[in-house]
Specification:
alpha+beta, nine-stranded mixed sheet, 18 strands, about 25% helix, globular, binds pyridoxal-5'-phosphate
């Protein structure tokens, strides 16, 4: 399928931020977007057009029943190259989210080609300073105007781009997280393993309460026992104990993070024993008290690695690794960001590189 391109005239281009280091995450968008529509059982009219508001019928099904999914990925520009990190994994995950939400599959190759063309058109928007990138947000929404709960017959798929500064402005800052035993993010049989819009709406109240008590994230526990760790906000969570690095298993309530997978691979290569196993909050607290809990961190595309310095559970706070960033968190962050921006040789086949000229 041919991708139609309608470019904005040079004089109506937006003013680009002069200092990419200062852009707040997710606030600036580029001049163009990729779109395609689904109806009559097929995707059609893939196109790149000027970034603009969408026209949606107020009865569009996504606005009522949250039949919507998205992805999050980053591209880095260094010199004459744009680097993408495991983009096919994002495409495959988009399709597994689509399957869970009874939405149509996308053609992974076509969408990747649309993204490639979009990035090339917007190459001057991709900042080049250390720590900066362009954040990519592929999105699929149900657009059929109909009230009544069933799967939509019409969809819109689009990709928007947002230049982002470094997630941590003054070096690594370990976060304080609040363990929620009142609210849950996902339950067995639900949509926790999909990047489904409703998951994030469901998490807002817990995040608000965590903010109000001086925390920056929520540590989610499992829905049934309210006991086993699931995720840290919108990141996968890792716990480094004396003899093992632990992360909760992918049993359907956890988003299968691409960074999670990369962390597991790197840590194993570096000689750590990595176990995907259930770990209870009681075990975490007991090991924090005996000094056997060395590090805790989250992994995800936005922050890459986010060290956790404190956790609060049932009104008691515990510090982890003295509230400082541990050596494994630091090493993973340095290694992953160096691979992602093409500074370090990619020995895993993770990088797709696009020449700009
Ligand atoms: C996107 C996301 C992650 C991280 O996935 P990555 O592919 O590593 O960016 C983890 N948890 C949730 C809930 C997410 O939405």
């Amino acid at each position: 399928m041919k991708i139609r391109v309608e470019q904005i005239s040079p004089e109506s281009r937006k003013k680009r931020p002069t200092d990419a280091m200062k852009i707040a995450f997710g606030t600036v968008f580029t001049d163009h977007m990729f779109l395609m529509n689904y109806s009559g059982g097929a995707w059609h009219d893939p196109r790149i057009q000027p970034y603009q508001p969408l026209m949606l019928d107020p009865a569009a099904m996504v606005l009522h029943y949250a039949q919507g999914i998205f992805e999050g990925m980053k591209a880095y520009r260094r010199g004459d190259n744009i680097y993408l990190f495991r983009p096919m994994d994002n495409m495959r995950r988009l399709n597994s989210s689509a399957a869970r939400l009874a939405m149509p599959r996308i053609d992974e190759g076509l969408v990747l080609e649309g993204l490639r063309q979009l990035l090339l058109i917007e190459k001057d928007w991709i900042p080049q300073e250390r720590g900066t990138a362009i954040y990519i947000r592929p999105t699929m929404i149900a657009t059929e105007p109909k009230l009544g709960v069933r799967s939509s017959e019409e969809y819109l798929f689009y990709i928007i781009l947002s230049p982002v500064g470094p997630y941590f402005k003054e070096g690594f800052e370990p976060v304080r997280i609040y363990v929620s035993d009142k609210y849950v993010r996902a339950a067995p049989g639900g949509v926790g393993a999909a990047k489904a819009m409703g998951n994030y709406a469901a998490s807002l109240l817990a995040i608000q309460e965590a903010f109000q008590s001086g925390h920056s994230q929520v540590l989610w526990l499992d829905a049934i026992h309210r006991k086993y760790l699931e995720e840290a906000g919108t990141m996968n969570v890792f716990v480094l104990l004396k003899n093992e690095l632990v992360t909760p298993p992918l049993t359907g309530t956890i988003l299968p993070g691409i960074l999670r997978d990369a962390v597991i691979q790197l840590a194993r290569e570096w000689g750590y024993t990595v176990n995907e196993r259930q770990i209870s909050i009681d075990e975490v607290i007991e090991k924090a008290e005996t000094g056997d809990l060395l590090e805790m961190f989250g992994s995800g595309t936005a922050a890459i690695i986010s060290p956790i310095g404190h956790i609060t559970y049932r009104d008691k706070s515990y510090s982890i690794g003295g509230g400082k960033t541990g050596p494994l968190s630091k090493r993973l962050f340095d290694e992953l960001t160096a691979i992602q921006c093409g500074e370090k040789k990619d020995t895993h086949g993770w990088i797709v590189s696009l020449p700009c000229s």
